Amino acid sequence: MAASGVPATLAPPPSGGARPEDAFDDPEDVLAAILDPQRRGELYPLYHAMRALSPIHHTSNERLHHAWVLTRFDDSMQVYLNPQAINDPATAEIYRNGGSEGAFYQTMRAMMLFLDSPEHDRLRRLVIRSFTPRAIERLRPLTQAVADELADAVATDGEMELVSQYAYPLPIRVIAHILGIPPSDHGIIEALAWDFARAGDPSALTPEIVRKGDDAALGFQDYFGRMIHERRLEPRDDVLSALVSAEEDGVGLSRHEIVATAVLLMQAGHETTADLIGNSIIGLLRHPDQLALLQREPELTKVATEEFLRYDGSVQVNHRLLREDMRLGDVVIPAGDVALIFLGAANRDPARFAEPDRLDVRRAPAPHLALSYGAYYCVGASLARTEVHVGVRTLVERFGGLDAASEAFQWRNTLTLRGPAELHLRWDR
Q: Could you tell me the pTM of the whole model?
């Protein structure tokens, strides 16, 4: 499994601005640069430039659907806390890759992310029971065992490619266990998840990716459909059994809803966390003093996890549809318009965070927006935190002299989800 990537270097980009040759005076030019896949490594300087020019900007960019672009923390938080700001169900239309009857599109539009409030809230209440902090804490030993197994496989090599050999397989094996997928089927599920995820990035579609995405959706429908039948006959202690038996006011989930929810949990439960682990390691490599500190005091990794989320989160953009007019300072966003929240920009807002471009693993935890906020707060937040904590701590504890094998690496060429496509590490054997 290999993702297309954008060449980058571990030398940090300029702080607080963009390239020296850039002299932006038009926010539309900044947005064009942000959308340019070849500048994925420079997002944060561009966010700063955008915030300075137009922190609440009504874009004319068709790729951004003429939305309002927000780059300040306080504005973003106000939108998240507004009950009249919702996930727009019409957003699912961007996934109509294979036509209205495409299996990928049909699966995406049934996910709770794209359902209107009453149905979204019902599904969320049924799912969240399995992802409470207490429920996830019971999975910490499993997460540690998977991390140790992956580390054992490469320990004597003295080097590895982080994404394919560690960051990607760790969370997908954990979420597979949570759903009740046996280890013998992990290879099947990993292949389906990879092809499904590639079809979810509208900026990098090809006919082959679209075809594989539809095939993966059909594969998921078949696989989870058989598991649903088995769980109805013989429930087990797993999330899929919980979804099969879940009811609210006497109403349970349909087979289609269960399949779509299982796919959502599978996809959201591994790709974003894999990116978070990769981004965390890149941040530490760019701040060797912080890496050295964690290697001396690995117990700091739990606190540092919040800083990793703030500093370079895997989800960079959220949207909210406003069902009524909303005032942000002197600006009124009309009802029916969409606000695009640039999470990475909000989490590096100097009005909210001191020295926002510096990774500080001792930074006192403060609310950030890496996992969204409000009614759509990430269901898997506790799971993501646990996996990043365990994943990063295992690396810094077990591999003395951890370093990049090369200054060069590759970012994925996606915007909504941010993470390395490839990053080679080495350590003392």
A: 0.91
